[in-house]
Amino acid sequence: MSLRHGVLRGAISLGSARMAMSLLNAASIIILARILSPDDFGIVAIAMAVVSVIAAVTEASLHQSLVQCDEPTQDHIDTVWTMSCLRAGLIFTVIALAAWPLSLVYGDERLGAVFLVAGVGGAFMEFYNPLLTMATREMRFGPFAAFQIGQKAAGLGLAIGLALALGNFWGIIIGNALGAVFASLASYLIIPYRPSFTLSRVSEIWGFSGWMSLHQLCETINWRFDQLALGVAVSKVELGQYSVADSVAVIPTRELSFPLRNALFPGFAQISAQPAKLREAFLEAQSGVALVTAPAAVGLALLAYPTVDLLLGARWITIVPLLQLLAITYAFDTFITVIRPLGMAMGATKLLFLRQLLGLFVRIPLIIGGLALGGLVGAAAGRALSSLVNCLISFMLAKQLVSVGVWEQVRAHGMTLTCLLAMSAAVIAAQTALPPAIANQPLFQIPALMPIGALTYAGSAFGLWHVTGRRSGPVKELLRISMRVSDLAVFRHLRRT
């Protein structure tokens, strides 16, 4: 199987899974936001942020080490499983010991029990069958996609059911914990695996995973720092509003970019010893991921008001400016999504860690300063600015890894940036021209404006590709894929008739 075909197949498999997860996540947010209060979401946000950071302290990218390893054996697989067992126990122990002190820090005695239950989910989150990861090494992504969908569906289904029954934050906390446990156990049914306790390959696994654990810790703090800080500085209601805005803002981009990122890692690993080929693949992947995912984030920012009003209800309308800023934050992140799989494939885990550490030093003062000057909106603005700075840091890292200049990377994103500007101008102009009967009704405003934005973006991309000589790149690749899908659909229709 060719690299391009393998990555494409993986992206489709994982992309379908993430799309299903995205729909499930969106549906759960809509339902839960109408059942629970902002205070409930504030409690959940603190618990999830703390558990994520504690889990990240022990994160070692154990499963990913099997992909990067040249010739993984059964001993490597069993060592990863054994280390995952030890990690799960460590996560829960640390959370159990920290539960009461942290409840005092956040001034809410309910958090002690909440941390304990959430810790169960945190311990089982990565305790899944390592053979699922081995399948991705062979460019077979179906088993891992099935696990991801099952994990998300179990957690969200239980959370909604328990929220309806209990009427408070315990529905989400217990549902997420049980979902993680059930999904982890089910992963051993997807691909049969009989584990054995061994640490015989721990030095080889840790050789890759050591720096990745530090990278993951910094990445998690980067992602969760604002909620950790807000949990101390603002009320649970305000934190709940911020958390819901963040949960909605992340859906379009993270759910679209993650499958591409996960599929690119084994693909890059296969050509890591061919610098010229890797450089070309990186540039094409980086520009392609942004071209596909960035418009979803910007579109959400443009339609934030009718989206919140329609999906969450009038009591959440105050989160609109937060949603807009956070959606732009995730749009910036799409331009550098490919850096992580590139660094992992090249074994440059130390550089990935240093990138996250530098980004953390930028993010913390910007968020704290923004919070002090402008409250929740200021904190969101600080986070958006820090993501923009992180783009520059990541471009500089890519220059060191594959010798692609910063300006060359910016130019590779030129089509995406131009199309985003055209889309934004078209949607804003259409908003101002809408008759009052439609402008005041989100149920009509969204279907009226969304096609305008989508057609403007797609038309701009095709037009730019045409006038610049129809060069190879993401647009040509997307057109080729579309033609194949169309031909396959016609062929199947003819066979049925």
UniProtKB/TrEMBL annotation:
Task: Kindly list the residue ranges recorded as spanning the membrane.
Answer: 12-35, 41-58, 79-100, 112-132, 144-166, 172-191, 288-308, 314-339, 360-381, 387-407, 414-434, 446-467
What Pfam families does its record include? Answer: Polysacc_synt_3
Q: Which GO terms describe its cellular component?
A: plasma membrane
Task: Please report the record's description of how this protein sits within the membrane.
Answer: Multi-pass membrane protein
The record's keywords, sorted A to Z, are: Cell membrane, Membrane, Transmembrane, Transmembrane helix
Instruction: Tell me the compartments it is located in.
Output: Cell membrane
Origin superkingdom: Bacteria
UniProt-listed PANTHER family: LIPOPOLYSACCHARIDE BIOSYNTHESIS PROTEIN WZXC, PST FAMILY PREDICTED COLANIC ACID TRANSPORTER
Family assignment from sequence similarity: Belongs to the polysaccharide synthase family.
Name listed for the protein in its UniProt record: Lipopolysaccharide biosynthesis protein
